[in-house]
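User: Hey, quick favor. My workstation is busy. Could you predict this chain's structure for me?
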Amino acid sequence: MIHLKSDADIQTMAEGGKILSLVLSKTLAMIKPGVSLLELDTLAHKEIITLGGQSSFQKVPGYKWALCTCVNDIVVHGIPTNYEICEGDVVGIDCGVYFKGFHTDASWTVLVESSQRKNYTVKEKFLLTGKNALLQALSCVKEGNYVYDISRAIQTTVEEGGYSVVRTLIGHGIGKDLHEEPEIPGFVKIERAETAKLAVGMTLAVEVIYNMGIHSVVYKGNDGWTIATKDGTISGLFEATVALTSHGSLVLTKSDFT
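Assistant: No problem, here it is.
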């Protein structure tokens, strides 16, 4: 069942989204060679609490961190560790904030500066494609459109760039629960009218999850969380929480990095 939100609900989610945007911006600004993933997580958790929110991810049974940190071939659910960021790394930060009964969810991926710039342009092009795919997807969040339109925008943009959309990980509705209906794949798998029709009151976590190589992914290590590309190529993740209001779509996690 899709849970539609009232104007008051969406306003509360917008407040939570503002907290998340600030946290994500500060965390991304901290990314540099020599900084550990655990240091990023400590900062993010402190900022969430200071700004009056709670960590959404720490409400997931068995997960203890405020962030998922994904470096290079890690696709999603990377656990923050003592790994120190290196020049040329591709680093994805995924974060969720719970505020006054509602969740918001967002992620962004950046390329760490490198003095040697080996493969730098290739990685820049890869990440630019993901950013564009998210923007195209968000532009499809309109009353009367379908989830299909969001999925098609992501798939078209990613594949035209020469990359692959991950099939087994998808976007989702969001609200009182971190994961709600409808499912929002980054690719088209059924007919347009068979997908959910977008309506006022929907709040969606739109995710672009894609790989430089093949779309297949595998669990990495034995932590039960970390998912990586099967072929070892780099992955990217771009996500925003958006609401459909009577005045049009409203990106609730909008910030300078978007």
